[in-house]
Amino acid sequence: MEENQLLALWESYDRKLSQNLVLNRQNAEEITKIKVKSLLSGMQPIKIFAIIVGIVWVGFLDLIVFNVWAYASPMFLISIGFHILLTKLSIGVYLYQLVLINLVDINEPILSTQEKIAKLKSSTIWITRLLFLQLPAWTVFYWTKDLFQNLHVFQISIIVGVALGMAYLGIWLFKNIRFENRDKKWFKFLLSGKEWDPMMKSADLLQQIEEAKKEG
Amino acid sequence: MFTRDSTSFLKVIDANKGIIYKVANSYCRDEENRKDLIQEIILQLWLSFPKYDPSFKLSTWMYRIALNVSISFYRKESRRGRISQPFPEEIISLPVEKLPIEQNEDLDMLQKFIRELKEIDRAVILLYLEGNSQQEIADILGLTVSNVSTKVSRIKQTLKQKFATINR
What we know:
The complex is a heterodimer.
Chain A: H1 3-20, E1 22-23, H2 25-31, H3 44-68, H4 74-103, H5 110-122, H6 124-133, H7 137-140, H8 145-150, H9 153-176, H10 185-190, H11 197-214
Chain B: H1 6-15, H2 17-27, H3 31-48, H4 58-73, E1 92-93, H5 105-116, H6 119-129, H7 134-141, H8 145-167
Helix pairs in contact in B: 2-3, 2-4, 2-6, 3-4, 4-7, 6-8, 7-8
C-alpha cells in the first residue's frame, strides 16, 4: 500500500469516526467529580511506607551495634554492618523512586515522561540485587571463636562451605540480575510473574527510548 | 490555561473524542480494557486540564496525555480492579449499528500492523497518520524534527512491506 493510500484510508476512518463516535456525557461528567490522584501518586504510599520501615529497622540495628560494640564477635559486627549498609542503599533507591514519582508530568513530551516512568519501574531491580547480595551475611553472623573451637572439622567444613557458597551465589546474582539476562532460564525461574512483567517492559521501553534518540 | 470547569472540559472532550478513541484503540484492542483505558485518559486529562499551556495546540496537549497514559499504564496486564471506580458503560463509543466502520479489511490490517509496532514507533505513525506536521510530532514526542523524519520513513517502509507480504 502506498503512502497516499495509507493516508486516505486513515482520513476516511477519521471522518467516519468523528461523525459517529458518541460521548456519554453523563459518565464523562461523573469523572470530573471523582476524587482522584494523579497517574503515579498511587505508588507513593508504598514507597513512603518502605522508607519509614527501612529507617526504623536501620535505626534499631544501629542501636544494637552501638550497645554490643564492645563485646560482640567481629563476624557479627561485620555481618550486621554489611546488612545495615545495604539496607541504607535500598532506602536510597526508594528515595530516588519517590523523587522520580514527583518529577513525572504527563503534560510533558512522551519520551521524557516515559523515560522517568521506565527508570522508576526498572530501578526496583536494584533492590532485588541488594537483597541477594546480603545472602552471605546471614550465614556468618553467628560465627565466634568458641563455636569453631567446639565444632568438629567436618561440621566446620559444612558451615564454611555454606557461607562460601552463599557468598558466591550472592555476588553472582548481584552481578547477573540485569535486564540483559531477562530471557535466560534461571532469570525467568527466579524473577517472573505479575510484579516483574511491568519492570521487564519498562526495560524494553528504556531501550526503545535510547534507540529513538539515536535514530536520525 | 483553562479553569477547572467541567462544562468547558466536556466541550473539549466532545470535540476531540476521536483523538482519545484512536490512541486507546492503537494501544488496546480488547474492548473491555479499552473502555478502562479511555476512562483513565479522560480522568488524567481532567486532572491536567488547568495546566494546559495555550502556547501549544490543544491537540498537542491531548496527544501527550493520551499517549503517556496509554504507553505507561497500558501494558498487557489486566487493568480491571486497578481503576478506582470503573463505569459500567463506555464513555466514548461507537454505536453497534456503526461498527461496520471498523470492519474494513485494509483498515483492519493497518491497525493490526500498527499494534505490532513498538510503543514509541506506534506513537510516531499514529501522529503521522493523524496529519500532524513533523514539527508537531517532534513537540509531542520530545524528539528532533530530523529524528522524526527518519523514524516516519522507516515505519512507513515497514508498513509497506507488511502490506506487500499479505498482497502476494
